[in-house]
Amino acid sequence: MKGGLNEAGRAFMTGSRGLEPELREEVVEFVAREIQVRGLTGSAVMFLEASRPYRPLGSQAMLFFDPVLRDLFGGDMAELQRVLADEAGIERLIERLEEIDEEPGFDA
């Protein structure tokens, strides 16, 4: 997991547009599972859906909340910022959170 995230950071630093689909999926899965472990799946989906009109400001807000997000998710946030700055990345995160919410099993 960490190797892929570092690769995303290198892609970000070199200025390449967007993330590779496999890397985006890896980051989305990581974020979705972290949200699930904290028991925030429903809240996160509601927040992401409600913030739809404000998404263009989202990547800028992430710069402001970077210290909090680093504590929550740990490590380099460049790849997470890329996913959340991309409409398709946010939509995929919402889809994955909904899939996780429907999975049978234990709630965190």
What does this structure look like?
This protein is an all-alpha fold and 108 residues long. It has one domain. 76% of the residues lie in helices and 0% in strands. The protein has six helices and no strands. It has helices at 2-13, 21-37, 41-50, 55-73, 78-85, 87-102. α4 packs antiparallel against α5 (78-85). It is globular. The chain starts with a helix and ends in a 6-residue tail after the last helix. 20% of the residues are buried. The model is unreliable at 1-6 and 8-17 (pLDDT under 50).
How is this structure best summarized?
α2 (21-37) crosses α6 (87-102) and α4 (55-73) runs antiparallel to α5 (78-85). It contains 6 helices and no strands. The chain has 108 residues and is mainly α.
* Secondary structural class: mainly alpha
Unreliable spans: 1-6, 8-17
Run of helices and strands: HHHHHH
Largest sheet entry: none
**Number of individual domains:** 1
| Count of individual helical segments | 6
Write down the Rg: 13 Å
**How would you state the average pLDDT, rounded?**
75
β-strand number: 0
Separation, N- and C-terminal Cα atoms: 21 Å
Helix content: over 70%
Shape: globular
Give the amount of beta strand, in percent: under 5%
